[in-house]
Amino acid sequence: MLWYFRSVGPRRIVEFLLLTVFAIFFAGPLINLAVLAFSGQWTYPDALPRQWSLKWWSFVLQKGDIAQSISLSFLIAAIVTVLSVVLCIPAAYAFARIRFPLKRLFLFSFLLTHAFPKMGLYVSIAVLFYRLGLMNTLLGVVLIHMINVLMFMTWIPTAAFRNVHAAQEESARDVGASPFRVFRSVTLPMAMPGIIAASVFTFLNSLDEAQGTFLVGIPDYKTMPIVMYSIISDFPSSAGAVFSIILTAPTLILLLAAQRLVSADVLASGFQVK
Amino acid sequence: MSVQLAIRNLSKRYKTGEGVADINLEVAKGELVTLLGPSGCGKTTVLRSIGGFLEPDSGDILIEGRSVVNLPPEKRPTSMVFQSYNLWPHMSVYDNLAFGLKIRKKPKAEIREAVAGALRLVRLPGAEKKLPGQLSGGQQQRVALARSLLLQPAVLLLDEPFSALDAKLRHEMREELREIQAQTGLTMVFVTHDQEEALALSDRIVVMNHGRIEQIGEPQRIYDEPKSLYVARFIGKMNFLDGVAEGERVRVGGGEYPNPKKLSGPVAVAVRPEDVRVGEPGEGEVQGRVKQTMVLGHYAEVSIETDRGALVRSFLPKDAATRLSVGQHVGVAFAKTIAYPKPNESTGG
Q1: Which of A51, A155, A204, A240 is the most buried (most CB within 10 A)?
Q2: Considering CB atoms only, which of A167, A178, A190 is closest to B90?
Q3: H or E element: which one contains A15?
């Protein structure tokens, strides 16, 4: 053992131990979740379940409100993403290109919704929504979700537009493109990785949102995270594990897809304070 | 020769106080004119006004006799090569080049042929499928040049296009640009802060200073007869000595030189290093001692400290310079001098 320690060096050993700890930290709960989802009977001292089974999968998938909540969640996430793009991309372009007074203050104001405890914000919004008749409506849920993502949806594309240099737009004007054509053929495609990254983030954030939806959407708009709360409290943990996997799958798929399209620095550049 | 580009009384003032005033310039068809000056002198302002990226406060710009001052960049018969970030990184070289022609709704076969031809002209044949990121800086500038050439602009504008490249490549690109100009006969306006580049490239040079034109002329003429002290300082290497003008003569040390400008009183006398003759002590008009010799290939730069404490640089053939040793007493004579009225600050010497 000592010869190994000497030949590898203490530095490497420490690195290896750290890596192991991290791996257990990250992968451990996920592996446990996966095993739990396929277990029929699993009692305390055993390392693995005594019986494997798919019964919790069929149970979860057969519950009517679950299938409904999945489609509702995806519908809401899609609406939130589309509306955010429509609303935030022009704003991001303005922040990146147009000079106007108090620009930095406006840009920073998007941070406000993240500066206070969420529940306090939601309660005051709920009061407002009551007066406007937006409680228990699709629009109300969509609006709550959008409040969460405004910052990312504006900051990341703003950085993306800023990275398109003026000379690149000017040379397009120069060869004969109208301002609209320049935006369509040069600016927008060049900023697209940032916009895609922000959109994926928005979609996932909306899919995951529980607190605000719980407050504004109940009883008619039960999204996946809401249903999950009730499953966890009403049924064995295996049912919760199955549902977690269903909830995680789209996240993993979207992130893998996004990773092929955009690099991490696209996201990071949105948070540089200039 | 017909006038291709005319700038009349162009003025543009920025909030910072900088800008240009009363710029008047005519460029003949097929001519390459360089706007030369330090940063902030207004040369880029003039160029961007021609290209349509800046709206001048007053004045007019005519291309082939037609005023373009109210047209947006895309409607002007000009094309610009920028200093950097010229190409669109998400498009292939072919798409970069074809973009302008597609907007003009040219048939596809014609576009393909034109793109191939333009790439041959800039010595990058077959580069159509590459992405800009796969090209070196010099190659990217060539593609940018090709993109502008394709449109056959009435005036080609070049905004310090080679200043981001290394020295060797810059030399090559200069030669290539001259060749391309000879082949295509395009009218070009070239902006640079590099006087060597301007001297090498131009049919005529426009020297600018603080938003005004100091001198317009052929490179050799600007070099030989700088109109002002500013131009004398800016173009090439120059020695400045204190002199006194009186009547027909300008006196420097023990020598007397002609005074064609009829100046009087203290003057600044400019002498090119190649016009400084170094001889035996006692010869010439100014006495001094060798301070330093620097051999620069086939010639050498010799610094001589005069008796009055001024520093005079001389370009000598390598052999003559190596015969001089540091500290040696020499006599200096000037083959040609130009006198300028003395500015308020000291010119040294």
Answers
A1: A155
A2: A190
A3: helix A10-37
